[in-house]
Here is the input.
Amino acid sequence: MFSTYDEVMEYCRDEQIEMIDFKMIDLLGRWRHLTLPVKRFTPETLEYGIGFDGSNYGYAPIEKSDMVFIPDITTAVHDPFSKVPTLSMIGDVFVIAEPHNYPFDQYPRNIANKAEKYMQDLQVADEIRIGPEFEFYVFDHVDYQCLPHKSGFSIDAEQAIWNSGESGYQNLGYKVPLKGGYHITPPHDVLYDLRSRMCTLLEENNIAVKYHHHEVGGPGQIEIEVEFGGMREMADKTMLLKYLVKNLAFQEGKTATFMPKPLYGEAGSGMHVHIHMFKNGQPVFYDPNGYSCLSQTALYFIGGMLKHAPALLAFTNPSTNSYKRLVPGYEAPVSICFATANRSAVIRIPAYAKAPEHKRFEFRSSDATCNPYLAYSAMLMAGLDGIQNKIDPVAEGFGPYDVNLYNLPPEEQAKIKSLPRTLDEALDALEKDHDFLLAGGVFPQRLIEVWLEAKRKESRRVLDQPHPLEFELYYDL
Here is the structure.
């Protein structure tokens, strides 16, 4: 939004801004923030930064936790949810040192910067452009508890089929059947206006929207697809989109969640990521004579992503809930393969993207519980490893499989490698296979170790907690 300190201050005067808010991402992918009165924002803030305790963000040990963040004024937006006029911007984390501070190698945004530079240094491409698809649910109510003597959750949505027999209020019908929400229209689609307001808000904050619609999930699942952008740029916009969507829903008395599988038996929410690359302004992934008009470079990129897919999922699908979505029967991929126009493959080449500059593929397993800087960077690093080592996905047995994988006979399905079934499986894969992430010094070894430790701790918490279904299965034994 801005390129100089003076531009920031001129905007603050014109818009009567009173507060400057700084947002940083923690290890697991949540924004944290700190706010200054606008008169405390000085040129020195941009040079020396603001001190904070990095140990509370999940990065540094307590004995070396003093760090600073330096605002990136190009990311500034006028926060639409603050009653006090507030300008918000993202910060980059630096280690305190003499004579100069230096970028903290574990900070996800710094890793994304290094990944793009590594790609350019290899002269593979000048730019990687990605386009995420955001699926999420909007509910009217959610409650949950995990106590020693009581656990469970309850969700409600006005349009859900389970409310078709509700007589405690004036029920006008038009409930959405199980997995029957794809592209439904009003009056079934009660979230239509809210989605449009969300998209208007995104556009006002420099996130270009391709389209929006109701998704398959009957109780309020929706999708917003955005236009392409640079990888680090889209990681910034992923965080901003989630912030805007959640806060607008909250403001409207509703609750939005990007949780991959909040409802049993309903469609899960993924975050498919479309990928293509350019060099000197020309598309790298296009070849009119290649499979599905893909270049050999594109196929090598796919080969790298598929070969490293089990480890990749530790970053792209980093929650225990992620693997409740990656099950057969819900258009979510379970097999490590690629194909054209096939939603059952983990990598799909859209048949409608025919023009050279649009030629791309999408990675379909990822979901929005990820830290987008780490997930997008890991995708890029896996693809670059495929290009450097000429990993041919056909020779590796990854396809193409231009058939519905769910309908293959069991003996044919057995020939195709499967994605991890649990978070622990993905973490095991990452522990064994992460050298591709360390190339060029992009991912530090310490971050891999910290990530594995944090995610294994999460997994243990879920596994250690008695599940309500266990009472149904075992209480009377």
Remarks:
- The mean pLDDT is 93.
- The chain has two domains: 5-103, 127-474.
- Residues 20 and 40 are 9 Å apart (CA to CA).
